[in-house]
Specification:
alpha+beta; five-stranded antiparallel beta sheet; four-stranded antiparallel beta sheet; 2 helices; 11 strands; 29% helix; elongated
């Protein structure tokens, strides 16, 4: 009788240990899954916040490009990975602008600012060396399948259309740019958990027209008018 009780007790203990191990593994899997999910969400939020902050800043600077009537905001030499433009804020009727170059170097978006060295509206001259060089953000790339971050639009027969002569813009095509689109894909700075959907694609645009385009298809609709 005692032997049977011992056998029964041992069996109950074994069953209890097995059930406890199953519960422990289930709880562990739940905790690990929760940690991984939180890490994925945090990584995506980080990428989104960094990208949107930079994009908002760039668009605000582009909205300050029409510093005087009939200026050409986007400069000659701009490409799909290099945006060169003038901009400035201030209370003057025609503030002296600076020229900014926004370029993709590897996976890093850089900004160089150049001060004016002379000239007057609508044409200014700028110094050869930048007075400010700063890193805007890292871990970015063009949004697939495109290999460009910047795209340029002008009016053709009264409708907004892509300017195809890129890269780079020449004097004729730069003078037609009335809108710049920015599209990029940002990846988190750190990826503690593998996540194929962590990169975030965002886009925005800035237009340089102060008035609607002409309905007359024969008339040009240049920027800053």
């Amino acid at each position: 009788m005692l032997k049977d009780e011992r056998g029964t007790t041992l069996m109950e203990l074994t069953v209890g240990l097995a059930a406890g191990a199953v519960i422990f593994l289930a709880l562990t899997s739940l905790i690990i899954g929760s940690i991984h999910g939180t890490a994925r969400v945090s990584a995506r939020i980080d990428a989104t916040q960094r990208a949107r902050t930079v994009l908002t800043r760039l668009v605000e600077e582009l909205h300050s490009a029409c510093v005087a009537p009939q200026v050409v905001p986007v400069q000659v030499g701009s490409t799909g990975t290099l945006l060169s433009f003038i901009h400035q804020t201030g209370q003057g009727v025609a503030p002296v602008p600076i020229r900014s170059n926004i370029s993709l170097v590897g996976t890093t978006l850089m900004q160089e600012d150049f001060q004016s060295s002379g000239g007057s509206a609508p044409k200014w001259k700028f110094q050869e060396k930048p007075f400010v060089i700063k890193q805007l953000m890292t871990n970015i790339a063009p949004t697939a399948p495109s290999s460009s971050i910047f795209s340029y639009y002008g009016y053709s027969e009264g409708k907004l259309a892509t300017i195809s002569a890129v890269p780079p813009l020449n004097e004729e095509t730069a003078a037609r740019v009335v809108q710049v689109n920015i599209a990029l894909t940002a990846s988190p700075l750190t990826t503690p958990v593998k996540d194929l959907h962590a990169p975030v694609s965002i886009s925005d645009s800035a237009q340089f027209r102060l008035t609607p385009a002409s309905y007359n298809k024969e008339l040009a609709s240049p920027p800053c008018q």
